[in-house]
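TASK: fixed-backbone design
INPUT:
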């Protein structure tokens, strides 16, 4: 399962598209208000009669759509740009339409709740209060003819009218924040429960994997003990029969027959053991993916680091057999690289990628740690990784630039 922050980021990208469309719907509502005013359904008492006010308002509400849908802008800043446009558009709407557009200040506050982002919500609330006060000042005082401007008018507009409206808005904003935090808490609990279930599932599968390794070791010991003893006894029996044959040929033949029978019993044991290993205890590349994913999750729990894992390139080789020795080595390689990154580079973010390329399976670990000024020196751990890879017919590479990267490749046919 992906980290909670990554899930929020993917959710944010989709929400940006939706909020951009909602801004267009808001523009449609404002167009309806303008049309009703033009056709005399009601009259808008406003001094912002220049056409450029309406052009600026339309541009603010179209800009999110342009950024997200046309320019396809991505980044954490996009949501702030969208909410800024929405808030400023509400302020412009009040300047142009006065009381007929006052409720549009609720649009940005309601819109920001679907992001589940506390800082963005606070930013939107503060900006909305400032936009509300500013729009009241512009619409009800600065645009007034000079003859009406006096200190009493300013006091009425800002103290008696704008500030109470801002307080009403803040009451609504606080309620929206409370509901948003409640929803966020429920989502977080659901994520934590799902992540815990994932960990339990991975640990269970890993326990089964270790059980299969232990079963292989037990079978190997059984073959060594029983078959080795049987073959040794058969060799002694055949040697004794060879010495006994000139004097007692019948007794020698009897010993030879017993030795042959015991050798056949040993062959049956070997066949059964190999069949059991092939039918029930075979391991493959898919097991490696689960094992490495468990390593990432356990490290994240034990340390203040983030590990992004990508195993999408292993799909074509998911059922390729892999020895337990290779699997244990690659697991140890990931642990070694993560430990080195935290210890020597002070890294906090890692990327683990494993895929199949040119007939080889590779595992690459990148971290954002500090890169040494000189060429990185290989310690005992990295030297061991290089030696193992080269002996197995693979390769080992270290790259230093933006962060530090270690990549190890092994031939698929020798797994």
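OUTPUT:
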């Amino acid at each position: 399962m992906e980290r909670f922050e990554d899930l929020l980021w993917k959710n944010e990208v989709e929400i940006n598209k939706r909020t951009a469309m909602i801004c267009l719907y808001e523009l449609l509502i404002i167009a309806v208000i303008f049309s009703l005013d033009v056709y005399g359904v009601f009259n808008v008492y406003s001094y912002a009669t220049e056409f450029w006010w309406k052009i600026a308002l339309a541009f603010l509400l179209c800009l999110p759509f342009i950024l997200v849908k046309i320019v396809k802008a991505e980044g954490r800043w996009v949501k702030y740009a969208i909410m800024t446009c929405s808030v400023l558009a509400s302020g412009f709407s009040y300047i142009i339409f006065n009381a007929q557009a006052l409720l549009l200040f609720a649009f940005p506050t309601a819109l920001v709740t679907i992001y589940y982002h506390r800082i963005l919500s606070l930013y939107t609330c503060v900006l909305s209060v400032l936009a509300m006060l500013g729009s009241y000042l512009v619409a009800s005082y600065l645009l007034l003819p000079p003859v009406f401007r006096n200190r009493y008018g300013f006091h009425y507009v800002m103290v008696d009218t704008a500030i109470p409206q801002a307080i009403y808005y803040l009451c609504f904003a606080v309620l929206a924040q409370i509901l948003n935090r409640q929803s966020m808490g429920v989502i977080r609990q659901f994520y934590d429960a799902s992540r815990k279930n994932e960990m339990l599932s991975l640990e269970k599968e890993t326990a089964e994997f270790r059980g299969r390794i232990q079963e292989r070791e037990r079978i190997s010991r059984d073959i060594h003990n029983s078959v080795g003893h049987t073959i040794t006894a058969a060799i002694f029996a055949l040697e004794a029969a060879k010495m006994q044959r000139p004097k007692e040929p019948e007794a020698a033949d009897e010993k030879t027959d017993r030795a042959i029978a015991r050798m056949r019993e040993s062959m049956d044991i070997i066949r059964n053991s190999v069949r059991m290993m092939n039918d029930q205890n075979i391991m493959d590349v898919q097991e490696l993916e689960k094992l490495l994913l468990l390593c990432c999750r356990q490290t994240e729990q034990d340390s203040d680091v983030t590990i992004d894992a990508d195993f999408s390139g292993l799909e074509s080789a998911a059922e390729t057999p892999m020895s337990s020795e290779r699997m244990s080595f690659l697991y140890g390689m990931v642990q070694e690289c993560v430990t080195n990154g935290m210890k020597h580079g002070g890294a906090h973010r890692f990327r683990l990628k494993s895929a199949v390329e040119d007939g080889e399976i590779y595992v690459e670990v990148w971290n954002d740690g500090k890169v040494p000024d000189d060429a990185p020196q290989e310690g005992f751990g990295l030297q061991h990784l290089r030696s193992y890879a080269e002996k197995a017919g693979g390769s080992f590479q270290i790259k230093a630039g933006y962060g530090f990267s270690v990549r190890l490749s092994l031939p698929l046919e020798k797994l």
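COMMENT: The chain has three domains: 4-149, 207-280, 285-414.
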